[in-house]
Amino acid sequence: MAIPSTPALRGQRDGIGFATHAADMAAVWDASAKDPRPLSLSALPVTPVVGAICPHDDYLYAGRVYREILPALTARTVIVVGVFHAYARSGFRDRIVFDSHAHWRTPDGEIPVSDLRAEWQAHWRPTDWSVEDEMHDAEHSVEAIVYWLRHRHPAREIVPILVPGMSLLRLLSLADGAAEALAGVMSARGLALGSDVAIVISADAVHYGPDFGHCPFGEGGIDAYRAAVDADLDLLRTSIAGTVDSSRIAALYETFVDPQQPDRYRLTWCGRFSIPFGMALLDGLHRRLGNAMTRALPIAYATSVGLPQLSVRGDLGLTAPASLYHFVGHPAVAFTSA
């Protein structure tokens, strides 16, 4: 941990790629609004945004894409569905991971964990989830988004969760149980999806290059880069965009991983489990809360080499190199009530 946690306060895992001080976060916020912009896939919807897919790469690489999507969220309480990168090494799978901290540290001050967490847990099968602070301390995919959510929103609160590896059947079962429990709590409290509660799914897109073990178009270079970007854009426009239902979720899952061996990537999007789970959770909430269907709308896309780095330094840096032989995609997707 760059900044260690305490029993009550979750610290900061990555002190290089993400801002640690308010001045750095403000500089990233300002720089991320300037040209050049990410590739625009659609205008933000005029209807309330109930959820999003957002990257978690270094701010200097991906800051413009965070800025394209996260300000569209207006809900006070945001459930952040994180990637559990190290689940295979830890041997943990098949359950959603909560933390127990009362607050998370951010560059702009502490952000509280909503008391919605405890009530959600109380109504959700205990065999479906676990509380593991050490696992949250080892993961960076939630904090990356939380800092943007807190910036300029001091009253905001969060519920962080991690999604490890699991079969499609187990994933859909967990999401269904999670949606049933959460919908009951939201209904009892009079909370609406979008205006009161929203869901952000943490996920970077393709990780391309020999270091990532993913080179379907050759080891790298401009032709491989263009082909990989085209494949990402096709996935966003055809596999993710549209009405969210179980068949779309299953197809996405099978695009990302081998369903017979879920630990084996087919496509190196690190949101291979967080995206299907988050979409299934949104779908389940909509069906139970009477909000019709969930619709996915791709908003923007960039890569770690497609745009210049943000002209911000301070204490910010890069956690990995980027080149045409080692690059990462950055997707932004909005979810609305159809």
The number of helical runs is 10
Taken together, the total number of domains comes to 1
CATH class: Alpha Beta
Major pleated sheet: 11 strands, mixed
In short, what is this structure?
The chain is of the alpha/beta class.
Key attributes of the depicted protein:
338 residues; alpha/beta; three-stranded mixed β-sheet; 16 strands; globular; MEMO1_fam; AmmeMemoRadiSam system protein B
How would you sum up this structure, described in words?
InterPro entries: MEMO1_fam. This is AmmeMemoRadiSam system protein B. By secondary structure, the chain is of the alpha/beta class. It has one domain (31-333): LigB-like (Protocatechuate 4,5-dioxygenase, Chain B, 3-Layer(aba) Sandwich). It contains ten helices and 16 strands. The chain has helices at 22-31, 59-69, 87-90, 116-122, 133-137, 143-150, 168-189, 222-240, 246-256, 274-289, and strands at 9-10, 39-40, 49-54, 77-83, 96-98, 103-104, 111-112, 129-131, 157-163, 197-202, 207-208, 242-244, 257-258, 261-265, 294-303, 327-337. Strands 2, 3, 4, 5, 8, 9, 10, 11, 12, 15 and 16 form an eleven-stranded mixed beta sheet that branches. A three-stranded mixed beta sheet has the order 1-6-7. Strands 13-14 form a two-stranded antiparallel ribbon. A hairpin with a 2-residue loop joins strand 13 (257-258) and strand 14 (261-265). Helix 7 (168-189) packs across helix 10 and helix 9 (246-256) runs antiparallel to helix 10. It is globular, with a radius of gyration of 18 Å. It starts with 8 loop residues before the first strand and ends with a strand. The mean pLDDT is 98.
